[in-house]
C-alpha cells in the first residue's frame, strides 16, 4: 500500500504532511526548508536516494514497504539544552507503538537504535538548524517494516525487518506522527526523567558486558542501563561512570 498524504495529514496536531515518491533524504528536505515550513511538519518518502545514518553513514532506503519519516519541531533557545536525550524518547515511542501492535522482541540499543530479535531494524537521526529564536530540530526515523534484501556493501551488520507482521504503513505513520507531536510538545516541561524507566524496559544490554568504542579507544564494562538524563551507566569494577550521547558506538563485549 502506498503512503497516503491526506490520511497522515489527518493525524497531525499541527503542521503539514508531505509525501514524496523519491527524495534524497527526508531529513535533508526538512532541514533545507525549515524556515518556510510550519512547526510539526512531517516528510515521508517511498524511497531515499541519499538516506543517511549517524556519523555520515548511509541508511539503506530502497523502494519497499519501509518507513522513511522525518518531523520538524521548533524549540526555544532555553528549551534546546536537553535535546540529545530526546532521541531516546523517540526510540521509546517507536518501541511502545510496535509493542502495542503485538510485535514481540523489540529492544533498544542505547542511545536509540531499534532492534528486532537481536538485529537492527530501525534507527533515528537527530539533526538541527539554528532558527531566529532557538533551534529547528529534525528527527528522522527509518524503520524496516518490509524489505526482503539489502545491499551488503551498505548494510554491514545484522539487520531485520518486520515483513511478517504486514503492517499498514499509513496507520503506523499516523500513530507515530501523533504520539511524536504530543511528546515533543511536553518534553521541555517533563524532561527525560519522565521516560527513563519505560526506556529501561527495552534496553538490549542491561546487565550485560559491553564496550564503548570511540575514535581513539575502547571502554569495557557492565551496562547498568541509563540515568535520569539518559546517559549510559557503565560499571567498571567498583566504579560507575556515565556517558552522554556522543561520537561513540555501544557493542556487546
Ligand atoms: P552506532 O551508532 O552505535 O555506531 P550502528 O553501527 O548501528 O550503531 P549507525 O550509524 O547508528 O551505526 O547506523 C548506520 C549503520 O546501520 C550502517 O553502517 C549500516 O550498517 C546499518 N544500516 C544502514 N541501513 C540500514 C537499514 N535499512 N536497516 C538496518 N541497518 C542499516
Ligand atoms: C541510524 O544511523 O541508525 C539512523 C538512521 C536514520 C534513518 C532515517 S530514514 C528517514 C530520515 N532521513 C534520513 O536521511 N535519515 C533518517
UniProtKB/TrEMBL annotation:
Q: What is this protein called?
A: biotin--[biotin carboxyl-carrier protein] ligase
Among InterPro entries, the record links this protein to: aa-tRNA-synth_II/BPL/LPL (IPR045864), Biotin_CoA_COase_ligase (IPR004408), BPL_C (IPR003142), BPL_LPL_catalytic (IPR004143), Transcriptional_repressor_C (IPR008988)
Does the keyword field hold Ligase? yes
Origin: domain of life: Bacteria
Domain BPL/LPL catalytic span(s) in chain numbering:
2-188
Give the species. Answer: Mannheimia varigena USDA-ARS-USMARC-1296
What EC number(s) has UniProt assigned to this enzyme?
6.3.4.15
**One Pfam family recorded for the sequence:** BPL_LplA_LipB
Q: Give the keywords, sorted.
A: ATP-binding, Biotin, Ligase, Nucleotide-binding
Q: Which molecular function terms from Gene Ontology are attached?
A: ATP binding; biotin--[biotin carboxyl-carrier protein] ligase activity
